[in-house]
Amino acid sequence: MSLNNPYGDFEITEPQTLRALAHPVRLAILDHLQRHGPATATGLSPHVGATPSVVSWHLRHLATFGLVTDAEGATSRRERWWQAVARGFRFTLPDDAEGQVAARQLRGEMFARTAEAPQQWLLNDEPRLDAEWRGLAGLADTRFVATADELRQLERAVEELLAPYVRRKDEKTPPDGARLVRMLRYLLPEPGDDSAAS
To answer: Which of 7, 42, 131, 196 is in the most buried spot, having the most CB atoms within 10 Å?
Structure first.
């Protein structure tokens, strides 16, 4: 496992790990542990749409790949508490065919998980915000022309800009008035002929 990135994310490089995570229940388990902290299979069950025994099996599978581990300080002998090993995860498209197929499967599951997030936010969360926070929410659909190297540089710059705020989640006393904010960021290069920029 490597955490050598601005957010302290788990970096996935093996196709087997990509395939293991490309499952809706496992993604939901990992997401819940990352967002809400340690939990048991029974506690996770209603949040991930699976029975405690199925959740327990998926937790052990995730642990095989180092994505979750036994929770530190868990004192119960009756229930096993689990925690995510990092606040998030990331992966790049591998060079080999097996890795590319696995990464594509994981991307598909991740897109499916986040597809309804904005609509759910609009229905459930936005009405409960005060005017200031409601006004700060936004959506951008920006198209721009960049080389592959420029896009890599842009992504690094955005991550470095956000990193102090991402890591702030671990602070025991965040600044007054601070709240959790979710940013969904998609980089979707468009296919086309090489003359598109001219």
So the answer is: 7
In total, the chain counts a number of residues equal to 198
Q: Is residue 100 part of a domain?
A: yes
User: Are 126 and 87 contained in the same domain?
Assistant: no
Asked whether residue 198 is domain-assigned, the answer is no
* Beta carbons of 48 and 27 less than 8 angstroms apart: no
User: What pTM was computed for the model?
Assistant: 0.79
**pLDDT in the model for residue 6:** 76
Encoding tokens for residue 59? 């937790």
In the chain, the number of structural domains is 2
Nearest to 15 by CA among 116, 97, 98: 98
Q: What is the mean pLDDT of residues 20-47?
A: 95
Q: What's the pLDDT tens digit per position in 116-170?
A: 889 999 999 999 999 999 999 988 889 999 999 999 999 999 999 998 888 886 6
Residue ranges in 65-124 assigned as alpha helix (H): 97-115, 117-120
Q: For residue 16, is pLDDT > 80?
A: yes
Q: Is position 164 within any domain?
A: yes
Q: φ, ψ for residue 68 (rounded to 5)?
A: -135, 160
144 backbone dihedrals φ, ψ, rounded to 5°: -145, 165
Closest to 39 in 3D by CA, of 53, 29, 49: 29
**CA 165 – CA 172 distance, rounded (Å):** 14
Q: How much is the mean pLDDT over the chain?
A: 88
